[in-house]
Write a structure and sequence with these properties.
There is one protein chain. The strands form three sheets. A four-stranded mixed beta sheet has the order 4-3-2-5. Strands 1-6 form a two-stranded parallel ribbon. It has a two-stranded parallel sheet with strand order 7-8. Strand 3 and strand 4 form a beta hairpin. It is globular. Helices cover 44% and strands 14% of the residues. By secondary structure, it is α/β, with parallel strands linked by helices.
Length: 282
């Protein structure tokens, strides 16, 4: 993403936040465009290029009603063995391609002492992102505009590892997730530091298809522990891999978006962006 692309993303985020905050007033295209200092025509064009649909259609996808409808469908198909992750269309995105391998007990306990970690800063449709990998797969991925903070957060995860600023095939495969044609994805591998319970929750998140949503309670049922909603929420909150492990697809049972490690506004944008890719032609 170029500097101009980053400016455009920031403007889109600001526009979405303004519309969401003033939804009951139904602000016009002209009002929103004026809010972010653009002409209506320029704003419409820029937004459509980013989201693939109009601002009005996008707002339908991030509305409370849309979220509630998705949750109803999720509840109805909770025990579908296929989890709706068939390969019948590109709308199924990446779930079947992502494989998780847990780190060994030694790697987990000694702060990654034996690990060599490559890291790289890139741009995504949702802002700057840091991606890090071991020889086995992606170990960390986070949205963060401040590169000093981003690198510090990574090193705090693995205080004893050796770090190298360079790209590799794991990172390239992971970042291809933001491309429009997901049928060309190679297998994406994750090498994660987590407890058995956390890994189980993160694997469960991968069963939520693109454009769909779930709740903490539904995920607790999926992993066979319906009373563990709070623990599931904690595990989701500790997800070390943004977007690839789609914790953004978990919302409150009321249909409200809820919190997100990388910002609720970004979560709202991701949910709307994914819905556009799945439902705009339906």
């Amino acid at each position: 993403m170029s500097t101009q692309d980053q400016i455009d993303y920031d403007r889109i985020a600001k526009a979405i936040e303004y519309i969401r905050s003033n939804f009951k007033l139904q602000p016009s295209l002209e009002e929103v465009a004026e809010r972010i200092h653009l002409s209506p025509a320029h704003f419409q064009k820029m937004f459509s290029e980013w989201a693939g649909t109009s601002p009005k259609k996008f707002l339908q996808f991030i509305s409370l009603e849309h979220a509630k409808n998705l949750l109803k469908k999720e509840k109805a198909s909770l025990f579908d063995t296929a989890y709706e992750t068939g390969l019948s269309s590109t709308s199924r995105l990446h779930d079947l391609f992502v494989k998780i391998e847990g780190m060994s007990p030694a790697e987990y306990k000694n702060g990654g002492k034996s690990l060599n970690i490559n890291y790289h800063f890139s741009e995504s449709p949702f802002g700057k992102i840091i991606t890090a990998s071991t020889e086995k797969g992606i170990c960390y991925m986070a949205f963060e505009n401040d590169i000093i903070k981003a690198l510090g957060d990574l090193k705090n995860k693995f205080p004893n590892a050796s770090f190298f600023e360079r790209t590799d095939e794991f990172q390239e495969n992971a970042l291809s997730i933001f491309n429009k044609d997901w049928t060309q994805l190679n297998t994406i591998k994750l090498h994660l530091k987590g407890t058995d319970f956390q890994l189980k929750v993160w694997e469960s998140l991968l069963t939520i298809p693109m454009g769909k949503l779930s709740t903490y309670g539904n995920l607790a049922e999926k992993i066979g522990n319906p009373k563990a909603s709070r623990a599931v929420g904690t595990a989701i909150g500790s997800n070390p891999v943004a977007f690839l492990i789609p914790c953004h697809r978990v919302i409150q049972s009321s249909g409200n978006i809820g919190g997100y490690m990388w910002g609720s506004e970004r979560k709202q944008l991701i949910i709307g962006w994914e819905s556009c890719k799945v439902y705009q032609d339906v």
